[in-house]
Amino acid sequence: MFYTIYNILSLFLVVPVFLFNIFRSLKRGWPLVIPERFGFVPKQQLARVAGRPVIWLHAVSVGEIIAARPLLLALRARYPLHALVVTCTTETGKTTAERFAEIDLCLYFPFDFLPSVRAIISAVKPRIIIIMETEIWPNFSREAARRHIPLVLANGRISDRSFKRYLSFSWFFRPSLRCFSAICMQSPTGCTRIVAIGADRAIVHDGGNLKHDIPSHPVGDSERIELRGRYAIPVTSSVWTAGSCREGEEQFLIATYRKLLNEFDNLLLVLVPRHPERCDAIGSLLTQAALPYRLRTSLKENDNLLHNGEVLLVDTVGEMMNLYGLADFAFVGGSLVPIGGHNLLEPASVGVPTVFGPYMANFREIEALILEYGAGIQVQSPDELTTTCQTLITSTELRRVLGQNGLKLLRDNGGATARHMEVIARYI
To answer: What proportion of the chain, given as a percentage, has pLDDT over 70?
Structure first.
């Protein structure tokens, strides 16, 4: 009865979803991929995986696909004869995934209309489907189960903020959760929450957080010099990278940067918005603040170096780790405004100290680890951000200690990939 009602209601959403997808694509400058979102995959793309058993992994956007990287590498190493197909929902996620050499084919995830779901599953013919984090779609889940395709939830998480919402709609999620063969959550708390929502306790595992398994290494002086040269940044500059910034945050970062320039004339800001299509609006803010800037896409080989006091505004995706690696210290966005934060382990993985704001609801476990290990500094306000940046600029030793602590955190808390692989191997 649930699926009958769901699909009847879905009929009324086909046109609105179609129009909204066009509007969003035009607004954000994304390509129109209507056929693919409705499950139609070009034959020339499918030819890349023809004749091989397929492992299908779905990751919504940039954060999920980066978190999935250790798992993708492990799958490629253990199953070299299988094809790895990845689906994403966003253009930025797909662009990031396409840079990973281990992936054979990258597609857009279909809308959860029954014909769309059936079309793409029939086209891809997966042996197993792995869903990153908590993407639960009724028709997709049921169709996989109906075809006896193992469905595994990987790196599952339910934030403090979303748990009550999930619980209120447990009647909606329970039928889909019962279609999963295995569910790997990031923590014991996550296990308890997913069971409360309706998952079968017998299939729920504490798999750990795959984000702890991101490759880590301290960026040495020679590598940092090479990276800075690639982005036209002077070797002698003190570089602050503000990554994954969200709307409403940039004005605070710009104001802090202007204050810091009054005291430190060798400072340079690398500003990386979470969504590159917002660069025009951010550029206007920089112009209003009388701060000169250059876009990442405007840099050319052997270009003139940026000057201290300028801003490198990054209008590309897939370069975040390089941009953290060339920095002296970093700020991780989505945390000065109530978004819920982003992955603090990215700068920590290259030995760069991390600054972040109070709004970390989506990354409570990682936030706690960063603070426990002393790998970063949490600020409560834009004013506190300014004073913390001043301290980091002037203290080489503090930056070194924070960076080393971040690398230790990653060494001590790895192993999630192996635990996930142990579960996944049962179904391949």
So the answer is: 99
Domain map of the chain by residue range?
A: 2-209+415-427, 221-412
Q: Yes or no: say if 335 and 358 are a contact pair by the CB < 8 Å rule.
A: yes
For the stretch 275-304, pLDDT in tens is 898 999 999 999 999 999 999 999 987 789
| C-beta neighbour count of 251 within 10 angstroms | 15
Q: Is the dihedral of CA 61, 66, 70, 75 positive or negative?
A: positive
- What is the radius of gyration, based on Cα positions, of the chain? 22
What CA–CA distances, in Å, run from 217 to 220, 264, 345, 349, 408?
Answer: 9, 29, 12, 6, 10
* φ, ψ (nearest 5 deg) of residue 304: -60, 145
> Apex CA 243: angle with CA 241 and CA 247, to 5°?
125
The CA–CA distances, whole Å, from 186 to 177, 205, 215, 343 equal 16, 9, 18, 14
Measured distance CA(389)–CA(394) in Å, rounded: 9
| CA–CA dist 191, 347 (Å, integer) | 28
CATH fold group of domain 2-209+415-427? Rossmann fold (3.40.50)
In angstroms, the CA 119 to CA 177 distance is 22
Write out pLDDT tens, residues 164-185. 999 999 999 999 999 999 999 9
All residues at 6 or more sequence positions from 294 whose CB lies less than 8 Å from its CB, including other chains:
232, 306, 310, 311, 312, 313
The C-alpha atoms of residue 268 and residue 79 are separated, in whole angstroms, by 45
Threshold 0.90, pTM exceeds: no
What's the pLDDT tens digit per position in 338-362?
Answer: 999 999 999 999 999 999 999 998 8
Q: What is the set of active-site residues?
A: 64
CA–CA gap between residue 428 and residue 412 (Å, rounded):
29
Using one digit for the tens of pLDDT, what is the confidence trace for 2-43?
888 888 888 888 888 778 777 777 776 667 777 888 899 988
| Matching fold, domains 2-209+415-427 and 221-412 | yes
The whole-chain average pLDDT of the chain stands at 94
Fold of 221-412: Rossmann fold (3.40.50)
Q: Summarize the confidence of residues 234-238 as an average pLDDT.
A: 96
Which DSSP helix (H) or strand (E) runs through 76?
helix 62-78
Cβ-in-10-Å burial (0-12, 13-18, 19+) of 261 comes to middle
Which two tokens mark 144? 């996989």
Half-sphere exposure of 151 (CA within 13 A, CB side): 23
